Amino acid sequence: MFNKAEGSTGKLVQLCIAYFVLYVITGVTVRYFQYYPNGPLMTPIEYLTYSTTGGVILALGVVLILRWYRFHSARLISLKGIKFPSEFCYILPSGICTAVIITFTTLMYSIKGVSVMVAMVLMRGSVIIIGRVVDHIQIKQGLLKKKVYWEENMGMVFALLAVAIKMFWSVFNHNSSDFDFLSHPVAMTILCSYVAAYAFRIYIMNYFKNTRPKGVKYDTKGYFAIEQISAFVVLLIAAIVLLTVSRAHSSGLQDYHAAVFHPQSGWVWAVLAGTAFGAVAFFSVFIFMFKGRTATFAGLVNRLTSLIAGTAATLISWEFLKGGFPDIQDWLSLAFILVAIGFIAKGERRRSAELVATHEIEETVTK
Q1: Percent helix, percent strand, percent coil in the chain, to nearest 5
Q2: Whole-structure pTM over 0.85, yes or no?
Q3: 80 Rama class: left (phi>0) / alpha (psi -120 to 50) / beta
Q4: Does 203 fall in a domain?
Q5: Hey, which residues does 83 pair with through a beta bridge?
Q6: Tens digits of per-residue pLDDT, 334-352?
Q7: What is the number of structural domains in the chain?
Q8: Is residue 153 part of a domain?
Q9: 84 within domain boundaries
Q10: In this structure, is residue 66 part of a structural domain?
Q11: Structural domain boundaries enclosing 149
Q12: How far apart are CA 351 and CA 291, in angstroms?
């Protein structure tokens, strides 16, 4: 049942199920620590500090223990007598972008008076759009030999409607304060940096995917390992810098400083909760880099799975943690998500048949 061929629809479904389950766990644990029935157990920055630490340690530990860093390269290059894979020249910068994404997401939560809802809508929507832009660029460059199916384009339209529902709802209900975010220089700088980092990262993932020579292993585990090692180094440096800034100046990072030097009693549990977030990273990257698929399709699968998981986490929190029941806009968003899934499922049937016909993948594993 679990022995699905690499690049097959069955393998993609397995990745999505694992991503969904882990994302639900992540969403529920966030609500547990932030909206515990008797009040929050810690501030958002404190929880993000501990959970991010747990996630980063898990990801780094797995790639080191399993030795995924033994990368299968298409070509070795030499620098002052030291040979290393040529792919490191762009995977290492991709790791830096990963660190920027993690750090700036945390910083977004530290800005007082900013609507996190609007920020998350813009972040999610940007990732969906980036995938389509990357496909357009790489088709023009001759790197991507496949066309983007109309079903994938329609899926993108409905996915954007799904993530924008909350924004439309705020406009309809005249909650103009939600959009103060757009006139906040620091918030917009963080958002633009986040989008730029994600754009570069998704471009690099697909550059790697679309330039593998025949006969060279498509080593997504190796890619993930090198990216995570690079990200860890940058995150460590960023953590030290932010600690220095928060200690030397009055800023919005006091909670971060307190989380490190005056940890909450439940910090160990928060770190353990963060391991689910770390595990999510594996399946997120493997979906983004899924063999034979366009960036448009992979980005949609990634974001739509996370959006459904978010709704599921809200329902579980409502049932067991006395959290709020999903609002009407959440259900409207889910309806658009289901329509988007219908389109991309149809596109996947076409793509899978195309890849099998060209012998790029096998639908089933031969025993």
Answers
A1: 75, 0, 25
A2: yes
A3: left
A4: yes
A5: 78
A6: 999 999 999 999 999 999 9
A7: 1
A8: yes
A9: yes
A10: yes
A11: 9-357
A12: 11
